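Problem: given the chain below (131 residues), write out its structure.
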Amino acid sequence: MSDRKYVLLVEDDQDIRELIIEAFRLLNIDAETAVSGDDAIQKLKILPQKPALILLDLVMPKTDGLWFCEERKKYSEFMNIPIILLTADSKAASKTASINIDGILKKPIKIDDLLHAVQPYVEGNSILSAV
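Solution.
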């Protein structure tokens, strides 16, 4: 991982993960991936540079997005990383009222909406101006 800003994508669905990574690749957005809340915590502990943004699936088996948000409170170095939730749950706003998130993107995700949500966090990475 270079000194460029990047996104940590936490998504258990391989198809969604691959679609988002491909969209990022086409627009020169770097990303790391995790498949669960626990996997994301472990990656954050070892990555030499913290991500500019975490895209976090809300509903995942075992350690979901809510678990991740609670667990990250144990690590002050992770608390300032913005989080945008990815969810099909229509009640996500009420379920996440008590945690600190920076946005919610509803599934199915429109790629244009995703890229517009991510762009402010990774500006300076030569993202296409057409986004």
